[in-house]
Automatic annotation (TrEMBL):
Protein's recorded name: ATP-binding protein
InterPro entries found in the cross-reference section: P-loop_NTPase
An example Gene Ontology molecular-function term: ATP binding
Keyword annotations from UniProtKB, A to Z: ATP-binding, Nucleotide-binding
UniProt keyword annotation of Nucleotide-binding present: yes
Amino acid sequence: MPTHQTARRPLYTETTTSQALYLPIAPPTLGTAGAIIGRELYSGKAFIYCPFSAFGDGLPGGNMLIMGDTGRGKSALTKTYVGRQIRLGRQVVVLDTKEQTEREEGEWAALGRAITGKAPVRFIPGGGQTPTRINPMDPAISGKRQIELVRTVVELGLGKQLDEFAGSALRLAIRQANRRAADADRVPVLTDVATALRSPQETDAAAKKRSREELLNDGLEASYVLDRLCGTDADASGDLVGMLDGPTSLGIDLDADMVVFDLTRVPSGGVAMTILVAVIAVFLEEVWLRPVCECGAPPAKHERLTVDTRSGAWQLGASEESGCPRYAQRKRIMVCEEAWHILGTPQLAALLEKFLKFARGYGLSCVFIVHHLSDLDDSAETAAALKMADTIVIYSMKVAEAAATVKRLGLPAWTAEHISRLRRGIALWKVGDIIYPGVQHLLTEAEQHLCFSSGSMTDSTASAPSL
């Protein structure tokens, strides 16, 4: 037989092919600054991740999406990651919608108490004995955002968008409610807006070239929606009673290292949950995300340093009051458990788009936890939110779900079968454009009892991997 027929032909590869063949050296590390996650199985190296430390070096933003089948380790990863980031000086807010029945509270409550010593901020329909409220009409929310938020509340309750006439009537009513509350030396609430919608002023009607009756009819439906949501003196059964129908509770400390909003008693998927999350998101944007240095001093307490006399460009330098040598925006993390009710609702996805799009300017990393992408619709708002997740963590899924996820996210075809074979506690990470096929999350012994969320289904002799 001729030699050329039996000789081994040379193997020609591209860089990406070579990386697939030699996985132990393929993915570069993310550096040594950040929170320890565990180990990268194919290289044996420690896996350290921090969106703030890795930002700009192949990672354009800090938003993260975590998904996978139930019981694969999503919540445990997020809790340990958050706890370790707090040790690095980060500040965290959690929207907890996942109840642990055996503890009669949300699954983030124990971790929050361990870190801050404070109970979660718990919202209960009807209010309970000690109601916790966030007021959409709170003066801390700027005028334009306040109008946008109240309109969102009405539209979510109505199930459709307001037309121009109704929107104009609502804006006038909000301004009137603020004026009347100021005259009475109190904080306005949503019921004030409902009252103003049913009692428009002649001057407002004339300014809009409408009769008073026409302006009343323009806003009448919106007033009924607010009555249904917030209740009235004759009917206290509104969806938002005890949660959004009064002044903001003084017990909400947004300066704590970790704030847990416990939403487990609010029906998932209902209008109350959707509206409550919308209000919390805007309240956090206006109050929690205010500029502050890592030293605790606001920008005004730091001196301005001119860096270019021709353009007048300047930056913030030292603070004599705190002794801080340079202004550094405090980094924050917002975690959304069971985020399908947020990303899967177009109005909420659009409302949170500002969080996601301008997260870099806020020094913010948003972390969304879902089971599968099939839980989310394919609306333009949801698609836009998914595109802003620069870090994606995928735990084991069934074959069909894995294939659908890979296709929707545009991942390489080989990852579909790989994802379906991942063991518990091991995930595929995509950080920027780099894929880490097997990252094993490890817990310390002290973290296990705070981060384990499957107690009702687990044998008491079972234990999680530890560092």
